[in-house]
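User: Hi! I'm working on a homework problem where we have to compare a predicted structure to a textbook description. Could you give me the structure for the chain below?
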Amino acid sequence: MDLQNGRIDIVLSDTALLADIMKKEPNIEFIGEKVINEKYFGRGVGIALNKSNKALQERLNQGLKAIKEKGEYQKIYDKWMKK
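Assistant: Happy to help. Predicted structure tokens:
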């Protein structure tokens, strides 16, 4: 898998597919919150990244925290998820 081999940094996919990949690849993990509005994503979308890439994980977590603190996350959620 390209994520495991370092050719890509992030995978955005449905939760079921990512969960299956994680069973086979112990160095891959979910980060952030699960998107659960079935209207848009079925069972959800997650972000997977190589566990060894702590810098990327930290940057993603910081970005999510920043948009939540500014209220942007809720605006995005309300615009795209509450329809």
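For your comparison, note the following. The chain has a mean pLDDT of 80. Residues 64 and 70 are 10 Å apart (CA to CA). Good luck with the assignment!
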